[in-house]
Specification:
The chain is α/β, with parallel strands linked by helices and 145 residues long. 32% of the residues lie in helices and 27% in strands. The protein has 5 helices and 7 strands, in the order E-E-E-H-E-E-H-E-H-H-E-H.
Length: 145
């Protein structure tokens, strides 16, 4: 059997598993945590927004945020997870990749992965199992992954 990585992720946690047999148990390789995931937006962005001059005239105004601070932390964590997956691909640690993630985080993770890594994705499951035990994760996967 070829090497398979099962990446189970959410905006707060990512666990990477491997499986030796088609229907065998999952063994955890690594765990990543996003410590900023539970922090309220008001605490992430404590500074007042910057000020800018109008392009015409003498007025000044506060600059707004284009992305919610919590969303920005989620994007940053998705890039960290993608970097870990990319490093594994470059080291030929896996031949096939299974992504299990809540739909919103999966939307941030997909664009952070390279096309070479996308070619190794065999299954995607849009479900939040980041806190589930390995047996529950395995039960949610197809028999052969």
């Amino acid at each position: 059997m070829k090497n398979v990585w099962v990446v189970v992720a959410s905006s707060s946690k990512c666990r990477i598993f491997t499986q030796e047999k088609h229907n065998g148990p999952l063994q955890q390789l690594e765990q990543l945590e996003n410590s900023e995931a539970e922090t309220p937006a008001r605490e992430i962005n404590t500074d007042r927004p910057g000020r800018a001059f109008d392009s015409a005239g003498q007025g000044r105004h506060a600059m707004g945020h284009s992305v919610d601070p919590v969303e920005q932390e989620t994007i940053r964590f998705a890039k960290k997870v993608a970097t870990t997956i990319e490093n594994g691909r470059k080291q030929d640690a896996f031949d096939r990749l299974v992504l299990v993630s809540d739909p919103s985080f999966l939307g941030h993770l997909r664009p952070a992965l390279s096309s070479a890594t996308h070619q190794r994705v065999s299954t995607e499951i849009a479900k939040n199992l980041a806190d589930a035990d390995p047996e529950a994760v395995r039960a949610a996967l197809p028999y052969r992954i």
